[in-house]
Specification:
This protein is of the alpha/beta class and 430 residues long. The protein has 3 domains: 16-28 and 297-429, 3-Layer(aba) Sandwich (Rossmann fold), CATH 3.40.50.1980; 33-154, Nitrogenase molybdenum iron protein domain (Rossmann fold, 3-Layer(aba) Sandwich), CATH 3.40.50.1980; 181-278, 3-Layer(aba) Sandwich (Rossmann fold). It contains 17 helices and 14 strands.
Length: 430
């Protein structure tokens, strides 16, 4: 795709936003929503994430984040001890004590998230009331919010959704009569945010912001004049909260690859009446760079068959990117939750006949995977090693969250993530 933003399905089909979806619900295998802290704590530089949970919660976050012993991260776990479980301590008093000690030790914290987990004693604790009590006590220097990262309630990317949704009610009102503004919603790596900001500037947009911002005092205002683009497909609760504030969602494919990024930016350009010449001038060089970077991998990956297990909710946009820009063949695209409205533009671009599955039973899908034997299987860590032992190449889906992927300049890194397992397996066979 060069110099154009119109998109049609391969073979000239018009596409369909109501595809057939396989439903065989059952046992799932996913990380819990606490994992989102790993990228969120790097994004909001004066925030702190205090997990209320068990030692297992602490080990999960520590392992996923890979924090070295001498580092001072912006997260921790208030661990439930035996005396708490036995009812010998007042949980609220213990939590207040931990928070007080934390804020005394870390005066740089301006935004504190209390993050619930899945132990039964935590579920019984009213973290919303606790956050309101602590917010009153430490105002105005520190804001205290809460959300759930429990694996019972969320898949691992939905932890970010719950976090951002908790922020929305605290955002300032956009002044009445102010010109419309653009809001990009979703935690992006700083380098990606800077690149997108330059593109918006070059397009002539002057009022735009990002949620979350890098610092708590820089969080954007929101109101009826706000038009928002989702940077990730798993932000359903956040989108609903923004719409309740009067903001309007701009439907678009997600900014993965040259085509996805162009169509995503075009949605903003159309909403703000950016002249076609301005849009083309702002995007042409980035689009060409991305297309050249992607083309280097096409011979190696075109025609290869890929299967997605449900994990990150990025599965549908990734399948679209791999099919349309690389020429890979999706065997099955499974996702924990298929948000049809937010994914409508993506679904319309998938190849005809793509098999979609929503929250499938993991054992049944494993049987289908073994029968199909795709060239590449995208799945969670818990499934990757067993499948590798059976001779299948895998890509860890969690790595797709830890790597900057959105935008033109990340297109090469995005496709390289999928090429690497196949290159590794080919080298091992020599």
């Amino acid at each position: 795709m060069t110099g154009a933003v119109a998109a049609t399905r391969p073979g000239g089909g018009e596409g369909c936003t109501e595809p057939a979806v396989r439903h065989d619900p059952g046992q799932r295998a996913v990380f819990c929503g606490l994992t989102g802290i790993v990228w969120l704590h790097r994004k909001i530089q004066d925030a702190f994430f205090l997990v209320v949970g068990s030692r297992t919660c602490a080990h999960l976050i520590q392992s996923a984040a890979g924090v070295m012993i001498f580092a001072e991260p912006r997260f921790a776990t208030a661990i439930i001890e035996e005396r708490d479980l036995a009812g010998l301590a007042d949980m609220n008093e213990e939590l207040d004590r931990v928070v007080t000690r934390l804020l005394e030790r870390r005066p740089d914290i301006k935004l504190l998230f209390l993050v619930g987990s899945c132990p039964s004693e935590v579920i019984k604790l009213d973290l919303k009331r606790a956050s309101e009590r602590l917010a009153t006590r430490f105002a105005p220097g520190v804001r205290v919010l809460n959300y759930s990262g429990s694996g019972i309630e969320t898949t691992f990317t939905q932890g970010e959704d719950a976090c951002l949704a908790s922020l929305v009610p605290t955002l300032a009102d956009d002044p009445a009569g102010a010109p419309p503004s653009l809001l990009v919603v979703g935690a992006l790596a700083d380098v990606v945010e800077d690149q997108l900001a330059r593109l918006f500037d070059q397009m002539g947009l002057r009022r735009f912001g990002f949620l979350p911002a890098r610092r708590s005092e820089a969080m954007p205002a929101v109101g009826p004049g706000t038009r928002f683009l989702l940077a990730q497909p798993y932000l359903g609760d956040t989108a609903r909260a923004l719409e309740a504030r009067g903001a309007v969602h701009l439907p678009a494919p997600f900014p993965l690859g040259a085509e996805g990024t162009t169509l995503w930016l075009k949605a903003a350009a159309d909403a703000f009446a950016v002249p076609s010449a301005n849009f083309e001038a702002a995007t042409v060089l980035g689009r060409q760079r991305a297309e050249r970077a992607i083309a280097r991998y096409r011979d190696r990956l075109a025609g290869r068959r890929v299967m997605f297990f449900p994990d990150s909710q990025l599965e549908v946009p990734l399948a679209r990117f791999l099919a349309r820009e690389i020429g890979m063949q999706p065997v099955e695209v499974a996702t924990p939750y298929l948000h049809r409205r937010h994914l409508a533009a993506e679904l319309d671009l998938l190849p005809d006949g793509t098999v979609l599955s929503e929250a499938p039973d993991v054992d049944r899908q494993l049987d289908r995977c073994r029968e199909a034997r795709p060239d590449l299987t995208v799945c969670g860590l818990g499934l990757a090693n067993p499948l590798e032992a059976e001779g299948l190449s895998t890509k860890w889906s969690i790595e797709l969250l830890f790597t900057p992927l959105q935008g033109y300049d990340q297109a090469a890194d995005l496709v390289d993530l999928f090429a690497r397992p196949l290159v590794r397996r080919a080298a091992l066979k020599v």
